[in-house]
Design brief:
This protein has 248 residues and is mainly alpha-helical. It has nine helices and no strands. Helix 1 packs across helix 4.
């Protein structure tokens, strides 16, 4: 009968410890991946609802462009842009940046078909208003449905919907091309067709440059506004929500 030396015993124990450590790391990163997937899904559907609201507002004001092009739907597939919806958010996660940016394919709108005073303004406001509506609906469910409050997973999922939609609404209201806030601003500050064409072509690059240069100030402002809105809607503070996220 062979004898097991102390060295062999320690090796067996070490092997077991390695297996446990590997399992813990696997579970941890799987959980982190699930959270990112959930956030990504919420972001996509919230952005799709945002664009759908733009299309519906334009359609109600006389522009059938989005409907004719099959974009007046909540089906996310027609709204997905390979770069802005998939590649860009993944790059922002992989690269050492402090923020993630992305979105759905903008709904096509022909402003010459729009009827009524301030039609452009109404179409621009429809997107952020749709995100505020989603935030309020899910926030009130957190506030008044005890089962959601009692479940950490449900509370996080519903809270994530509120946070992401408030973020989309407030971010899109910034008066920086090509965000909705710029269209709202330009309603009251008329610009020449040449300037509008310039912003239409280079607006996204201007936005990225401004975010990199003034990122800390912009996101401090965004979180200040979101923190102000989150508590009245959900009944809990944004700090409590993030503490729950850290404790998951």
């Amino acid at each position: 009968m062979s004898k097991v030396t102390p060295w062999e015993n320690s090796y067996v124990d070490l092997g077991g410890q390695r297996a446990v450590v590997f399992l813990l790391f696997f579970c941890y990163y799987t959980f982190i991946m699930i959270i990112w997937i959930l956030i990504f899904i919420i972001l996509i559907f919230s952005a799709v609802f945002h664009e759908y609201a733009h299309g519906m507002a334009a359609y109600s004001l006389g522009d059938p462009t989005a409907k004719n092009m099959g974009r007046l739907t909540l089906n996310p597939i027609p709204h997905i842009d390979p770069f802005f919806t998939v590649i860009l958010p993944l790059l922002m996660i992989i690269l050492p940046t402090n923020f993630i940016i992305g979105g759905a394919k903008p709904v096509p709108i022909n402003p010459f078909n729009l009827r009524g005073k301030y039609a452009d303004l109404k179409v621009a406001l429809a997107g952020p208003a749709s995100n505020i509506l989603l935030a309020v609906v899910f926030g009130l469910m957190i506030r008044f449905i005890p089962a959601i409050q009692a479940s950490q997973s449900l509370f996080f999922a519903f809270g994530a919907v509120v946070f992401i939609n408030l973020l989309l609404a407030v971010f899109n209201l910034l008066p920086i091309p090509p965000l909705d806030g710029s269209h709202i601003l330009f309603t009251f500050v008329p610009l020449s067709s040449e300037v509008k064409a310039f912003f239409s072509q280079y607006g996204f690059f201007i936005l990225i440059a401004i975010l990199f240069l003034f990122m800390d100030y912009i996101f401090s402002l965004l979180f200040l506004v979101i923190n102000f809105l989150f508590n009245p809607i959900t009944g809990v503070s944004l700090t409590e929500f993030f503490n729950l996220l850290n404790g998951l």
